[in-house]
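Escalated from tier 1: iron/sulfur cluster holo job.
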Amino acid sequence: MSRVIFHRPEDRHRPAPALAPGDAVRDVYGRPLRDLRISVTDRCNFRCTYCMPREVFGSDHAFLPHSALLTFEEITRVAAVAVSQGVRKIRLTGGEPLLRKQIEVLVAMLAQLRGPDGQAPELTLTTNGTLLAKKADALARAGLNRVTVSLDALDDALFERMSDSGVAVATVLAGIDAAARAGLAPVKVNMVVRRGMNDAQILPMARHFRGSGHVLRFIEYMDVGNSNGWRMDEVVTGADIVRLVNDEFPLRPAQAQYRGEVASRWAYADGAGEIGLITSVSQPFCGDCTRLRLSPEGRLFTCLFAEQGHDLRALLRSGAGDQALRDRLAGVWQARGDRYSERRGQAHRDHKIEMSYIGG
Ligand code: SAM
Ligand code: SF4
Ligand code: SF4
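Tier 2 regenerated the structure:
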């Protein structure tokens, strides 16, 4: 059994405790490494205005060439090392991960991994849902456990405007249903709320997904990347969203299922399921952040708002053994002191990585 040390806020600035056998590797604030988010491509078939605005990601944008991307074997090797050092949950993301050819082959490879306790890590994927109806069965057969589908509006015109894609809402809804039928459930549905853009869709979305078995999660609009022109007054806080939904459908707080759970959970009092709130702006959760991110071309990022990554690809392609990879990964995590969201406003950064490159 691995030993989990829960740190108190006042301990955050103390050095990490020494590692005991079986412990997850810990960063400078004592946060264990538990989650790995793997971005498999920087490309996307959407141009969501808050993520990949077309003015910045136009037809002349230089995406990574295929040769720069980590192969499935390389990704699996990194994931195996991370799982041996405490990772229990792996999320595939992007860009749009279902654009990566034969992504189900990667899923099948990752599904073979086992941690030091013999347990398989939980395998999930975040997608815009456009290709999900086609891919859900193959993904489930390959060993994927669950999916999260992004959907910001039920109104077709608004959805097309926000995703700048020409894709109909019905296509995404069909993807959600196909995923649930394939057993990738409960499906989580992510809605980024941007004031003046889609806040009028909060209640229609809540009405639609209540009682469906899918879990709707409202995400505060974040200042990720450098291209979305984020402004604080466009953020609708989680507290405001809970108040709004609660006025129509009474809610009660639900317990977090595990430490490091990103969403705070609220259950409908009448038993029609639950919603989640991801309040990275109004109530940052850096103290519990256990996520490491791997970019499409093999750089490790210890924070969504990082400016720089740590290259692993050169090491992978130099014929390095697993111990060298383990040392590198542990070194990166142990040096981690990120807590951007807690310091928002104090820590100005000019060159943050883009969300479409590193994933959510
Ligand atoms: N393309 C896939 C998708 O949209 O689900 C996966 C990658 S996308 C970058 C991952 C998540 O990040 C999505 O749920 C998206 O809504 C969210 N996201 C992107 N930009 C955001 C922003 N500025 N603020 C909050 N969430 C954002
Ligand atoms: Fe693409 Fe997802 Fe970003 Fe939208 S949020 S542009 S679907 S990567
Ligand atoms: Fe984690 Fe960075 Fe987000 Fe804080 S700001 S929760 S450290 S990714």
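Confidence is low (pLDDT under 50) at residues 1-18.
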